[in-house]
Design goal:
The complex is a heterodimer.
Chain A: H1 4-27, E1 31-32, H2 40-74, H3 80-88, E2 112-113, E3 117-119, E4 123-132, E5 135-144, E6 150-154, E7 160-161, E8 165-166, H4 167-173, E9 176-181, E10 193-195, E11 198-201, E12 209-214, E13 219-223, H5 229-235, E14 237-241, E15 246-249, E16 252-253, E17 270-277, E18 280-286, H6 298-307, E19 312-316, E20 324-326, E21 329-330, E22 345-346, E23 348-353
Antiparallel strand pairs in A: 1-7, 2-3, 3-4, 4-5, 5-18, 6-23, 8-22, 9-20, 9-23, 10-11, 12-13, 12-14, 15-16, 15-19, 17-18, 17-19, 20-21
Helix pairs in contact in A: 2-5
Chain B: H1 2-11, E1 16-18, H2 21-47, H3 55-58, H4 62-77, E2 82-84, H5 86-112, H6 119-162
Antiparallel strand pairs in B: 1-2
Classes of the chains: A alpha+beta, B mainly alpha.
Chain lengths: 354, 163
């Protein structure tokens, strides 16, 4: 055949160019999307909730912006100090070393704060570090007076693909007292995304289990194929996190020992959010992939959350995404490859704040 | 009409070619080398993926193995005196290349934990190319077989009449 070599060359170039474009589209090219238009009837039912949340969120953002400059200067360089001190006693009061943290976020003026705890009239957070399964596990025990202080935020305050930021940066910009990484919705093209009462994505994914957080702060684990996002919104859902699976449901472990999320069959860094009781939550983040911490399987994480009294527990994005920030300090040791400790940029966070 | 067109194409080695055993052996060997490289690459990628498993990545080596090496070996050992010509073979190899790259790309995305609907393009384009190639191969091969039989019959009958 004539020009055979040229045909092969052109085909190879086209295949390579398409693959490069697909890779760029997946990992680099930024696209900001608009929320889903929900019917008026559904919108009305959640308008009040959304309004409350938005007002609180904008107030937090404004305050965070004002305070960010002074916070930057007051942030300590070493992140490990709070974790190390937390390892022995979660509720112990701290010395003057922790007082430099005062002023972070949009906290109450009556707040009592140490390196491992925060308390005011509405929010109480206690940080404890556990050592189980050859892994450091960081647990923030959260008690709230109202569900409005349990929030989520997008990177760069925008919903889209490849719109990312580190958990600590998002925590800072939102004035979060406590923050963990979210579900990294931007890495996938399906799965519900409902945040602060606004529905951004309503495409169901087969077999996908979501965590629904209602306006009263209660948790429910649902399957996307069984209920639509619009229906959940009408029921009063304020947040939907779509990663999973559900770890604990009705106080019982919901995963088997050999069951894993997607194709992750090994112990890994993990992030989990759990509800113990009404307005009583646990934020759990484990290290992993390092010499000092092996990481957890989903079953181990579920068993651990259950042992702390979790009635409902849900697995969020893990691996290199797992990060916990408390009072502006990165608490865990996030790593993707196990050799360098570095925060991964993610799409969203779940946080406690005003 | 169709047979004559096929025969004229066959003369140019576009749809059907005379069986070339060294070429078939070469193709089988190349396919095997590519499969081994893909198997090794997939194993290395899986080793560093912290236990995240991807079938698309691990089994990508099967595509050139099943699509190039095995057919080439079977053709080499078959009694047929013809083999697919350049055009269907080129399309077939293009299709397999697209499917293999698509499989690797999908595997990488799976391991990273992300998705992209553009991966469908690989399956559609690869499928289209391989199916087109197969469609070009099959009638050519069948017609070539029939025409060869007819020619053999004519040759036999003319031999008898000569006797």
């Amino acid at each position: 055949m004539r020009h055979r070599k040229w045909i092969i060359l052109i085909f190879s170039a086209a295949l390579l160019a398409f693959t490069l474009y697909a890779a760029l589209d997946t990992f680099v090219l930024t696209r900001v999307y608009t929320p889903v238009t929900v019917s008026e009837a559904l919108t009305q039912s959640t308008a009040a909730q959304a309004e409350n949340t938005d007002v609180a969120q904008s107030a937090a953002s404004d305050a965070a912006a004002e305070e960010s400059a002074e916070t930057k200067s007051s942030r300590r360089g070493k992140k490990t100090s709070s974790a190390a001190s937390a390892e022995t006693e979660g509720t112990s009061s701290q010395d003057s070393g922790s007082t430099s943290l005062l002023g972070f976020g949009n906290m109450s003026s009556s707040a009592v704060q140490t390196a491992v705890s925060y308390s005011d009239a509405n929010i109480s957070v206690t940080l404890t570090t556990y050592r189980q399964y050859d892994t450091d596990i960081y647990v923030a025990d959260v008690q709230l007076s109202s569900a409005e202080y349990l929030k989520t935020a997008f990177a760069q305050n925008a919903y889209g693909k490849n719109v990312t930021d580190t958990t600590s940066s998002m925590a800072q910009s939102n004035g979060a007292i406590l923050a963990v990484n979210g579900d990294y919705y931007g890495a996938r093209e399906s799965g519900y995304v409902l945040r602060s009462g606004v529905l951004y994505r309503n495409t169901a994914k087969k077999g996908q289990e979501d965590l629904v957080i209602y306006a009263d702060g209660s948790f429910e684990i649902i399957k996307e194929t069984e209920v639509s996002a619009e229906e959940l919104l009408a029921r009063g859902a304020v947040q939907i996190l779509s990663f999973g699976p559900g770890l604990v449901a009705d106080g019982q472990i919901a995963v088997t020992a050999d069951e894993e999320v997607g194709r992750a069959m090994a112990s890994n860094p993990r992030t989990c959010i759990a509800q113990v009781d009404e307005l009583h939550y646990l934020f759990i983040v484990s290290d992993g992939r390092t010499d000092s911490s092996e990481g957890l399987s989903l079953y181990q994480l579920a068993a651990f959350a259950q042992s702390l009294g979790a009635k409902t527990a849900y697995n969020l994005d893990g691996g290199g995404s797992s990060a916990m920030v408390f009072n502006g300090e990165l608490i865990n040791n996030p790593t993707t490859n196990g050799s360098s400790i570095k925060e991964r940029k993610v799409s969203d966070i779940v946080y406690i704040g005003y | 009409m169709f047979t004559s067109a096929t025969e004229s194409a066959a003369k140019k080695n576009i749809l059907i070619a005379a069986k070339d055993v060294p070429l078939l052996r070469k193709r089988a060997f190349r396919g095997l080398l590519i499969s081994l490289a893909l198997a090794a690459g997939g194993a290395v990628y899986e080793h560093f993926s912290h236990g995240v498993w991807s079938c698309a990545m691990v089994y990508a080596f099967m595509i050139p193995l099943a699509g190039v090496t095995l057919p080439s070996m079977l053709l080499e050992r078959s009694p047929k005196r013809t083999m697919p010509g350049e055009l269907p073979v080129l399309l077939w190899h293009f299709g397999l290349a697209v499917l293999t790259v698509g499989s690797l790309f999908s595997g990488a995305l799976e391991i990273y934990g992300t998705t992209n609907s553009l991966t469908r393009v690989y399956w559609w384009a690869g499928g289209l190319l391989t199916v087109s190639a197969a469609l070009l191969m099959l009638p050519g091969m069948l017609n070539a077989g029939k025409s060869t039989e007819k020619k053999d019959q004519i040759r036999r009958s003319s031999d008898r009449s000569n006797l």
